[in-house]
## 1
Amino acid sequence: MRSGSLEFKIAKINLSKRSVDVEVSPRSDFDLYLGGRGLNAKLLFEGQTAGVDPFGPDNLIIFGTGKLVGMPAPTAGQVTITSKSPATGLYFKANTGGAWARCLRRAGWDAVVVSGVSEEPVFVVIDDETIQIRDASPVWGKTVRETDAHIKNELGGTGWDLASIGPAGENLVRFACVMTSLYHAAGRGGLGAVMGSKKLKAIAVRGSGETFVADRKSFQDEVLSILAKIEKSVKAKLYVDYGTAATIEMANEGYSLPVMNFRKNRLEGGHRLGGTYLVEKGYMTNGAACSACPLACHKFHQVKEGPYKGVSGGPEYETLAALGIGCCVTDTEAVLKGNELCNDLGLDTISAGGVIQWLLESVERGVVPPEIGEGLNLSWGDGAAMVELLKRIAYRQGVGDLLAEGTKRLSEKFGGDSWKWAVQANGLEQSRVDIRVAKAYALAFAVNPRGPDHLHAQPMTEFARFPEAVELFKQLLGKEELPPATSTEGKPELVRWHEDVFAVTDALGICSFATTSSYIVSVSSICRLIKAGLGVNLNEQQLLNIGRRIVVLERMFNLRENPERMDTLPFRLMKEPISEGPHKGQVNSESELRDMLRKYYRLQGYDPETGQPTREVLSSLGLIPDVKGIEDVVAT
Amino acid sequence: MNKTLLVDLTKCTGCEACVDACSGRMTSQYSDRQSKVQIRKDELRTVFIPLLCENCAQHPCVEACPVEAIRYNERKDILEVVDADCTGCGACAEVCPYQGIVVISEKAQKCDLCEGDPLCVKFCYPGAIRWVEVDSDSVLADLRSKTRKLEELRGEHEIWKS
């Protein structure tokens, strides 16, 4: 079977048994879940039971690419990695680009499922249809770049790409990430630590095969029409010129950037971490695209000399905001070094910034003694301390060993009121969006099965900042007058659409920056890509329905895992209003959130009080009877 | 007027859309092997280089071919490999300074410039591959700078040798 098929070819690797099995899933899985994140969700739900130890042999880590990957569909270069998170103990999917997904598809595989735990460090080699498990002891303890160089040298030839972990993953840091193409991160949820617990250092892949296209002429026309749309898009242009870093200045000047652990909203000198500054000063250089992506929002950066001399990929908005703005560090070069270290050691920058800010505030408030820093100045704005803390976290040295557990466990350990400034919910540090000024984002963060972050739904349209967003907003609300971002009006509808589209996006292996966020790839355009690329007729409603099915299935995993889990937000954002600027007084109050949740649950057909999907919803989406065991989870 | 595919190294983002455009132009499959454009990637040193026939004026491939299988087309503006004559010895591929010739199924294959309307150029959103007239010294200087960069990288790192 080659990549033109609508079945899924899945490699099942058990590291305890050192076995590799090949499975082909039925065509119905494509019709119901499309692939990627959708297929992963089903495989994870059916592949494990509740209560599995995230670090144990029964936890699966699944790498799934979409059917559009391997074709030049703009942004089709993504892989979704799915597992049970050691940070949250719940469902987790994280996605990354680079060239890894394309290589996997060209090797003829749609997904790789890894189970078991190896006794010795290993790496997996996928060379077209051949899969080997090899000794990784020479690279155990090495950084991502060292590992990449060593393994590519050992394998020889060209065309290899690695998904690997750094020392943070090996040391089971609960927010260690998986890196692809050196600098692209499946950042959140500690999936790198899941690999580390399995003693799996890397998966190297190359593919010399082909991806079949159903109607190459129509496909080509659709690609060229999307490229023409990018040309006219303001938001896409920002990605092209500055990457996600473009947003820093705007958010800082608009008092909507979380500063000092979400206590302030604008940082003096914050522009030194903005996209224009980074480009003008020569820090941010050329683009480093994921496969088939015209935007190349991911960049390279360099510091030419001095103590922070170095080169890496990025930096992203979230990194600049977490390690820089949040910690009040405006020293550009220190923040770039922080980013380089996180890439190389395999640390999620968002949670790393989150734990450091929690530490600084805890020292400030006297809950944690300053001596814990063993010589480091643990006060706001010290770039050198931030950089040093990252190393200590990855290697679990001194205070780093504590920080590696994440803010929820930290605050439980240190007690007092410190849980109040652990800006997390359900075990995940919130990403750097001040949702007190954006109520669709607030709802999206609350219902996100990962926890409060931006990569479940990106309802960028609520800011109505550019024509594509305004148009969509009007369409979804069915009216011309648009409520502001701080209003809850219409936000449940907005979130729902974005969730569904985001799920479809991940399932096909394209990028949410294209389908949401910049809205350059519309739902109808996705339908045309599927028709021309795969020869399948799906209308917009059918497509969104698949997205909904994926969203509900992920929710069911969490319901099975922990029926007590609540759709909620970090305590600070629900209790402490914004203290300055035009949004002063805005807060995510409990009643406001509850109100939005009720409306959202009703739209979804969930129980309006508990938020649990009903049997009727599961049946109408076909999850009953398709997913084994799902019926047992639903309330009778 | 002689036209060429001009590669701007500073603009290539390594997305490989050009590779897919090339392989998918005549067949219904995208494949690196079937593409006459390749991207060499070196993320460690933050560089991506599109490798393709640049229709250069020096054309060492022509001189290297022992059976004179590389000849100008009828319009005398594009060098083509004449399949019937090619023995697949690979001598042309070895001398090409741009690594623009690949041997596939025992035949040398190179870019034929899509009959004067290269598809890779349309797929290259960042504008790293442009289709320009060789009408000035600056164009030639750009071409030479790429050759130099390739030489430099070849000397430094294993992956450039293959």
## 2
Amino acid sequence: MASVSEKTFKAIKERNIIPQPKWQIVLRNHVFWALFGLSVIIGALAVSIVLLIISERDWDVYGYLDKSLAEYIMVSIPYLWLFIFILFALSSYYYFKNTSKGYRYDTPAALIVSFSASILIGTMLFFGGIDLQIRDLMADNFPFYNKLVYTDEDVWNAAEKGLLGGEVTEIRGPDQFVLRDSNGTIWNIGMVSTSWPGNLVFQRGLRVKMIGHPAEDHIFFANTIRSWSSR
Amino acid sequence: MFFNASDPNKTDEELVVLTLKDKENYRYLMERYEKKLTRYIIRISGIKRDDAEDVLQESFIKAYQKINNFDFDYKFSSWMYRIVHNETFTYLRKKKARPKVIDSEFSSIILDSLKDDLNIEKEIDKKYLAKHLSEIMSGISEKYRVVLTLKYLEDKDYQEISDILKKPMGTVATLLKRAKEQLKKEIIKNQSAFKSYG
């Protein structure tokens, strides 16, 4: 009676079975690494934007918005970006575990690799300034974005509470200029004993945030002016 | 003589290289593993020898098709065991069958190997054990039986078990620990039932 080896060998010959080409196998392994890398990069972009939002938030103005610091922190947490980060960090974990040797790593170790890769690269992107472009791209192209994220526009679009921000459209004199807020409303801004950072050069197109008080007919008196972006 | 694949001193990995050059050499690799893999299939599934040989044949064919996928960082035996392992459970799923209780010879080897680890010798009636080994083993989860089989019957180390089951070594250690605990619990439970009926 033929052994299994003999029968198998006969079957291989008769059915003309050939080994799968190496490139197919290499490709499969590389696909998982590529998907891992892609997930890490998307997760990293999300991390960089989380850092951007946190670093650019004006943490001293919550009082004007009738919020406690805790409430202000809660609304300021960029949940959407955190969700995207966690989602892609988890998917990078999945792809990492499915690489040829991924299974050798314990779940906590693989999770640490996946999450820390995104955090590390995201931090580097944050310092490299990529985050600003991504955030602006999202804010400009996705109408739902501003509804999902508590943005600076939300904070600085409260003239009645003393907070107003927007773009300088005209400079009318040393103590007066015109500003268009994020809703497109035109404001006449008056400056009396107004403080602003020395490096802030007033010119058309400059985006600013102001603390002050409103007057009638879209007039706003600014006590403090700061640049829209800290970077 | 240098390229003689039938040379028993050739390592499995050398035979893989030779197989990639000439498929005739695959026969020697299969012959090396035929007996132990048939035994392994029966041990983890309890299926009949004829069925086990069919599973093995499918596994050998699959391994040949994937031979370019063999990573020389692994042991060939781990790679082959993994394919056979997967093929066995695919077969059971297709047949909608659960792995059956292993034979008593198998059980006694496991219990013999585990006697010191389990520290059960004094507590247990040996006659009872001899009679009820299969019953006891059947009370253990399938994943625990597999890991006990690989460790104590197939004599695989943690790294090999990790590569066969595609689980981290830490998980393998945990599985083994729990397997021994469950085995001990089963033995004590069975003996208590035996005494109360006896």
